[in-house]
User: Which sequence fits this backbone?
């Protein structure tokens, strides 16, 4: 277990002399970071190659580390993902950025990246650059960016919470469920 072995990584064992208050604070800070990182680790795939059911939070770096390598196709799709995330994030109005579909599976060559953008209520399309426009138009996103992007303002979600809306995207075409990934800040 991470907590059981951590004092060895700090270089000091509890009960030994020479442990200063500063050392304990540093180790607690390091441990907090490691525990947060552990929470951001994505789970293993199930026997179908999907993530287990649920919305799994991960940083963009963790997503790239897990899904961004292995085949030239994965690397290409990952570069598209990073580009789209950067554009959406720069608006300052991005509330949630969720990934689903073949990219977040064990499939070696996902065809594209499937993205749900939930924008803040004060997001207005005309307030942003031309670079954002293909992201907001599903057909343009598909043809110009190689991505299926679905976006909505949070207040436009009716009859359910934002979490319930996001959870619906776990359902596959065959009506089984799989895990999806939400990119979060570190």
Assistant:
């Amino acid at each position: 277990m991470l907590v059981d072995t951590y004092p060895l990584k700090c270089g000091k064992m509890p009960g030994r002399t020479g442990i200063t208050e500063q050392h304990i604070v540093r180790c607690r800070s390091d441990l907090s970071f490691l525990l947060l990182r552990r929470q951001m680790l994505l789970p293993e795939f199930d026997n179908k190659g999907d993530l287990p059911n649920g919305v799994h939070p991960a940083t963009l770096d963790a997503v790239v580390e897990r899904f961004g390598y292995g085949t030239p196709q994965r690397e290409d799709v990952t570069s598209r993902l990073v580009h789209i995330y950067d554009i959406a994030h720069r608006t300052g109005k991005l509330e949630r950025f969720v990934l689903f579909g073949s990219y977040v599976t064990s499939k070696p060559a996902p065809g594209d990246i499937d993205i749900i953008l939930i924008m803040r209520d004060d997001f207005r399309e005309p307030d942003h650059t031309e670079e954002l426009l293909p992201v907001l138009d599903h057909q343009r996103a598909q043809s110009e960016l190689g991505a299926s992007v679905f976006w909505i303002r949070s207040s436009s979600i009716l009859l359910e919470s934002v979490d319930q809306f996001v959870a619906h995207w776990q359902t596959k075409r065959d009506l089984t469920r799989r895990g999806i990934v939400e990119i979060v800040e570190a």
In short: Helices lie at 2-10, 21-40, 60-67, 72-90, 133-136, 138-145, 162-168. The beta strands are 55-58, 94-100, 113-119, 147-153, 180-183. Confidence is low (pLDDT under 50) at residues 1-16, 31-39.
